[in-house]
């Protein structure tokens, strides 16, 4: 059975809620999943590095702050250079998710950073595979209301707590994204 690891940083709890929804989608699709939280100092422990090394797929997650992943996620990513040097993560699947207070919030910059990180590691990227909810009848609670294709995006108002945001449509989108990653991993890894 495939192992899929989610490795993420969350500053205020909104990105953690998004990560939990991705995890729920992975598990609903029958995947074995690991949940790794990057600490406030930007580190993970040795056991968590071993889990990432064993994983068939790695899902990166971070809030978008000032148009980029958090410094804690960046510190984690910089620490992957030992794996880069040995191509330890070559041909693993990769995917990513982010959250910010604004509808756009330059979240694409964070997703593109994740894609670049994955390409540096010779990983295989998985996008959302979801059509955007972009018709006049679409509502904020529809799947992929933010119209993200390269990776998962969510929006949480700056004055909302993690018990209030991201909104239900973004949480449902995250679950469906988890299912997609599980299915892609199963297809590629057999």
Short description:
With 190 residues, the protein is α/β, with parallel strands linked by helices.
Written overview of the protein:
The protein has a single domain, classed as Flavodoxin domain (Rossmann fold). It has six helices and seven strands; from the N terminus they run βαβαββααβαββα. It has helices spanning 14-28, 46-54, 71-79, 81-86, 107-120, 168-189; strands at residues 3-8, 32-37, 57-65, 68-69, 93-100, 124-125, 152-155. The protein is 39% helix and 19% strand. Strands 1, 2, 3, 4, 5, 6 and 7 form a seven-stranded mixed sheet that branches. Helix 1 packs across helix 6 (168-189). The protein has 190 residues and is α/β, with parallel strands linked by helices.
List the helices and strands and how they pair.
Blueprint: E1 3-8, H1 14-28, E2 32-37, H2 46-54, E3 57-65, E4 68-69, H3 71-79, H4 81-86, E5 93-100, H5 107-120, E6 124-125, E7 152-155, H6 168-189
CATH class: Alpha Beta
The CATH architecture term is: 3-Layer(aba) Sandwich
Distance between the amino and carboxyl termini:
8 Å
- Give the fraction of residues assigned to helices: 25-40%
Strand fraction:
15-25%
> Structural class per helix/strand content?
alpha/beta
Kindly identify the CATH topology: Rossmann fold
Show unreliable segments: none
Rough shape? globular
**Separate helix tally:** 6
Fourth CATH level, the homologous superfamily: Flavodoxin domain
Mean residue pLDDT: 96
Q: What is the count of distinct domains?
A: 1
Q: How can the largest sheet be summarized?
A: 7 strands, mixed
The ordered string of helix (H) and strand (E) elements is: EHEHEEHHEHEEH
Kindly provide the radius of gyration, computed on alpha-carbon positions and rounded to a whole number of angstroms: 15 Å
Total number of beta strands = 7
């Amino acid at each position: 059975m495939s192992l899929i690891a989610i490795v993420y940083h969350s500053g205020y709890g909104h990105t953690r809620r998004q990560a939990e929804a991705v995890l729920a989608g992975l598990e609903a699709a029958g995947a074995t999943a690991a949940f790794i939280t990057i600490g406030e100092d930007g580190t993970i422990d040795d056991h968590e590095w071993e889990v990432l090394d064993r994983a068939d797929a790695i899902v990166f997650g971070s809030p978008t702050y000032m148009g980029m992943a958090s410094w804690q996620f960046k510190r984690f990513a910089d620490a992957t250079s030992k794996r880069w040097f040995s191509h330890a993560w070559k041909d693993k699947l990769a995917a990513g998710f982010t959250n910010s207070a604004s509808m756009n919030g330059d979240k694409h910059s964070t997703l593109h950073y994740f894609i670049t990180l994955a390409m540096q590691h010779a990983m295989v990227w998985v996008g959302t595979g979801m059509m955007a909810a972009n018709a006049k009848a679409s509502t904020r609670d529809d799947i992929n209301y933010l119209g993200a294709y390269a990776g998962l995006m969510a929006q949480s108002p700056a004055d909302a707590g993690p018990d209030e945001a991201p909104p239900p449509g973004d949480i449902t989108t995250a679950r469906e994204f988890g299912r997609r990653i599980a299915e892609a991993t199963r297809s590629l890894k057999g």
